[in-house]
Amino acid sequence: MSDADRSADTRDNEPDITSRRGFLGVAAVAMGGSLLAGGVRLIEVQAATPASPAAGATAGANPTVRWGLLIDSDKCASGCTDCVTACNTENGLATPQRATDAQWIRKVEIKEIKTGRSASLPVMCQHCAEPPCVDVCPTGASFKRADGIVMVDRHSCIGCRYCVMACPYQARSFIHEALTEQKPEVPRGKGCVESCTLCVHRIDQGQQDTACAEACTKAGHNAISFGNLNDPDSEISRRARAAATTQLRADLRLDLGVRYQGL
Amino acid sequence: MPTIEPARAGTQCVADPATMRREHPAMLEHQRDETVRGGIRGNKASLKACIGCHASPATGSVAKSEANFCVSCHSYAAVRIDCFGCHAARPAATAMSKQP
After folding, report:
1. The complex's ipTM?
2. List of chain A residues whose C-beta atoms are within 8 Å of the C-beta of residue B40
3. CATH assignment, A67-261
């Protein structure tokens, strides 16, 4: 086919294309009209029903916030387990008796063999921005809230424990046996995986302190500070700006919400 | 018919009894997702608020004995719920002490 023939073909087809476009345009306008009408009706219905949020309801997770912790291992006292005790009390966890018992936060003692320098630090869910537990969860029960807190929705958790395997920090626990005497604000039960929630029930009520950070301050160590990593004026951001901080297993590039100082 | 324990005196339910009987599972389920995933607490259909008013003065719970609020009806209707496998069936200690 010569160039001239091809251009003639194109010209021949032009009216068809135009008419099809014209039809689509008309169809789009028609659909737009019906959508607008539908939208108006929806607003009317919404206005007619009573406002769903009750007067005392909280605003919910703020997507502009990223909650995190900064842990200074120089200030963390070796042998002190106040943060662990406070976490257990706050969330209704029993003191672990066996290796399979739930543990949301644990104290770790590390020592560099060559120099003999030792450090003590608490390890809990690191609240990754790219959480592997969320990636592997087959039911969507593992999720990250808008404010960066990684949690388990126990309503959809089937207890498969993929997340336990996927977590590089061994932060998750599985509940093997039926529990009693749970805290009303911290529901927990058999057959589900759970981990540190950054005291989400406190955060939702506007309290900006986790049980572990509160206990550490009360003990006079001030090793744990909780705050908004996205706010440059928050105490945690100021501390992270002033001193070198590290993320555990930074090579995994998970962008952690928990940072360590003095490691 | 089951005998339903009356709610704590001086409290007002979030909807009329007919609506609550029919709609309470949907209301609770809707709010559960808002709360767990969205962090919105203290909304209308909160399980904690239900328990706050409906816990039995005798057992302090909504699910401890057959006569308690949730269990009385669910056992009659042969509905097995697992809410209280995880959720506390009694109000927080502070709320309990406020009860007359």
Report:
1. 0.86
2. 53, 57-60, 204
3. 3.30.70.20
